[in-house]
Amino acid sequence: MYKFTILYRCNQILIGSVFLLLFMPSLLSAQTFDIYEIPKLNGPITLDGNVDEPAWKAIEPLPLVTHWPSFGESVDLDQTQIRIAHDEDYLYVSCRCYGDPENISAPTYKRNQANMAMDGLAIILDTFNDNENGLMFNVTPSGSRMDGAISNDALDGNLNIFWDTIWEAEAVITDYGWTAEMRIPFSSLRFESEEGRVEMGLIAYRYSAHNVTLEIFPEVPPNWGLWSFVKPSQTQNIVLNNVESHTPVFITPYLLGGIQRQATLPEGDDGYRHDRELTYEAGLDLKIGITDNTTLDLTLNTDFAQVEADDQQVNLTRFSLFFPERRQFFLERAAVFDFTFGGSDRLFHSRRIGLHEGQPVRILGGARTISRTGGWDIGLLSMQTAHDQGLLSENHSVVRVRRQLFNPQSYAGGMLTSRIDENGNYNLSYGLDGIFNLWGDDFLNINLAQTTDSDPGASVISFQSMRLQADWERRSFDGFNYNFNYNYSGELYEPAMGFQLRRNYMRFGERISWGWTLGDDSSLQRIQASMNGSLYLSNEDRSLETSEFGPSVEITWKRGDFANAEFTYITEDIPQAFQLANDVEIPAGRYTFPETSLSYHTPRGESLRAIFRAGGGGFFDGTRFTASVTPTWDPARIVNLNLFYQFNRIEFSERNQDLTAHVARFRTEFTFSTSLTFSSFVQFNSANDIGVINSRFRYNPKDGNNFYLVYNETLNADRDRLTPRLPASESRAVMLKFDYTF
After folding, report:
1. What share of the chain is helix, strand, coil (3-state, %, to 5)?
2. Beta-bridge mates of residue 536
3. Predicted local confidence at residue 357, as pLDDT
4. 155-159, 465-469, 577-581: which range is least confident on average?
5. What would the pLDDT profile of 333-385 be if each residue is shown by its tens digit?
6. Residue 523 has pLDDT above 50, yes or no
7. Which residues partner with 299 through β-bridges?
8. Nearest one of 566, 579, 466 to 513, comparing CA atoms
9. Closest Cα partner for 436 from 408, 416, 414?
10. φ and ψ at 656, to 5 degrees?
């Protein structure tokens, strides 16, 4: 009874506080925008990429301007023609891209591989006109497609390419350039409709890799840095008439079978043995369109066997590593569930569901619904995990509400998360947050959260279990910019459904900077110089935990390469020793040392390109040197090669200790067509002496229908590091998976 009283009181606090916040008097006036009406097609379109139907000729091309390398110049129709139209069921986009066919860059057929080495036609749709979230659809001259979800107004390039939906595109290379067509079902989009009238935000652009040129509609200036051209806040308001509500039902059953082998050490034995197990599973996903702006997703016996392995990393800190979400079920409109405190800290992190120490935990099933109505964003998620790997069965649930207020870029809302195991033990997190566009490019972000649990002494509201952030930033590139941040985390703050690096601290930061956009006569495009700093204090006695201060500079060239240099002066107070690897540890004490880092990215439009990084300096009571290289090569349209190699060398001469760590990742992809791919991802990490192989064959004849053959293996690189001797292969699995969408 006690826990239900707690839940009831938490809901009262959350709902009451949000109600007060959402309906307080507005201090800022609303903004208004001109409307661009998208015409309706007057004839049929055959989706073949040729753009030769009379119906297309009747549509006026969008008025494009240049975005890169210079801004604001009108684009002639004999250079690029982008058209957009609709009928009752689909949104159509076409492009005639004129130019020398020898300069066309289309190195792959692979889906979700669009990058700045590939020509492309793209649109961004802000389907709810919230000026913060968007959906991107991109097609290249080879016909390869990329779709992604944009969040947080594309700050720092917030584009999640692991989001996929159902749509079609075709492209043709001609003797005068290339042409392309897209067809996006309205059933794949979520929007608000009033008597057949739909308003959205739109950005459309053509990108040419050989000269790093981008032509765009509407006139979006590059004032916010590299990702200015995908910002939902800069979309053109459009209207589509006579578009009726689509409430489809998609049913996707799957079948999974395979064999797994795991090394085990029986009690009392002096050697490992391999246990084999046949695996066979079946499950079901349902997507139900309740209204045109509300969906319900149901999943039964959820499986993610086809998801690629996490990148191997070397942890040279005393904090946990953060890994991003890659599982498709959790990615659709995931931005609705964002409640972040800066960096990787957040109140809800979906990887807390169905994963434990990087290993999958069986998910029995769950449900999610996301809705946008009357200015409200509402998200509900509930998942049930099984009794697995010695872990108790748990329910993970999230409630999220947000509302637009003041102006199109201001929001306030709240979140409640619960994690309850089969014995009734629970952890609750609840909080309020707001993003307020004060004026111009100035934004104030406020987050306030509390946690409590089933401990009889836990409080519903306590300063010790509170998390608070206040962040004031100017979101622009040119001229004077700043970001001032305050963070507080109480000693008892413990979000079991979230992620946090540090505990029981206060933080002050962040940066001031000045940016320049260079003129047409310069080979440089942008320069930004910054002074960065952060100060972490212990809540117990206000003593220093960490301070980091120093300048940085970032330079971008018009040919597409960029460089960054940073110097940081660091002070660290280590209350207790922590281990790095191979019996190398950092003793308790206070340390002061400098650190320098450099990076350079070669021109992004080349088929062979690379990222170089190097850094070094002090490292507590020793020295460190780190270097990495990430070359990417597209030797042919069906082959893509990517290598990552990182070298770390740490020396503590006075203690006669040292550490050398290597991380290597090699990804090979063969894309035989837009529906047939093979990829192999091989990794090695010397810090924990393991190698990982993840190979995947995929046949995808159309969206929603997939056949996967997956091979995974974990290898021990140093078999003699433990006694008894480790097996060469720690685990191995071969899986077949088939899913079909009705």
Report:
1. 10, 55, 35
2. 507, 546
3. 81
4. 155-159
5. 788 899 999 889 999 999 999 988 878 899 999 999 988 887 788 999 999 99
6. yes
7. 285, 366
8. 566
9. 408
10. 55, 45
Give yes or no for a contact between 514 and 529, defined as CB atoms under 8 angstroms apart. yes
Residues 6 or more apart whose CB falls under 8 angstroms from that of 698 comprise: 306, 676, 677, 678, 679, 706, 707, 708
Find out whether 151 and 133 touch, Cβ atoms under 8 Å.
yes
Q: Which residues fall within 8 angstroms of residue 140, CB to CB, at 6 or more apart?
A: 106, 108, 114, 118, 119, 120, 146, 171
Neighbours of 538 (CB within 10 A): 16
Residues 124, 148: Cα–Cα separation, whole Å: 9
Tokens of 248: 């489809």
Who contacts 723 (Cβ-Cβ below 8 Å, separation ≥6)? none
Compute the radius of gyration of the chain from its Cα atoms.
27
Please report where in the chains the tokens 């192999």 appear, as a residue.
680
* pLDDT at residue number 323: 83
Domains and CATH numbers, the chain: 31-240 (2.60.40.1190)
Write the Ramachandran bin of 337: left for phi over 0, alpha for psi from -120 to 50, otherwise beta.
alpha
Tokens of 601: 């990215």
CA angle 164, 165, 169 (to 5 degrees): 100
DSSP class of residue 321 equals: -
Q: Are the beta carbons of 254 and 738 closer than 8 angstroms?
A: yes
Contacts of 556 (CB under 8 A, 6+ apart): 226, 524, 525, 526, 527, 562
User: Residues 277, 282, 287, 290: is their CA dihedral positive or negative?
Assistant: negative
- C-alpha span between 701 and 168 (Å, rounded): 12
Contact between residue 392 and residue 422 where contact means Cβ atoms under 8 Å apart: yes
Q: Are the CB atoms for 727 and 691 separated by under 8 Å?
A: no
Angle (CA) 583 589 592, round 5°: 105
DSSP 81-93: EEEEEE-SSEEEE
Q: Tell me: the pLDDT tens digits for 632-670?
A: 998 888 899 999 999 999 999 999 999 999 999 999 999
Res 75 pLDDT > 80 = yes
The CA-based diameter of the chain, rounded to the nearest angstrom, is 81
Place of tokens 């609709």: 86
Question: What residues contact 269, with CB distance under 8 A and at least 6 apart?
Answer: none
pTM over cut 0.70: yes
Cβ atoms of 276 and 734 within 8 Å: the answer is: no
Q: 540 to each of 490, 547, 562, 587, how far by Cα in Å? A: 10, 17, 43, 21
What backbone torsions phi and psi does residue 24 show, to the nearest 5 degrees?
A: -75, 160
User: CA distances (Å), 538 to each of 416, 451, 486, 499, 678, in order?
Assistant: 27, 20, 14, 19, 50
Which amino acid, residue 630? Answer: T
Q: How far apart are CA 327 and CA 403, in angstroms?
A: 27
Quote the CA–CA distance of 201 and 221 in Å, as a whole number.
Answer: 16
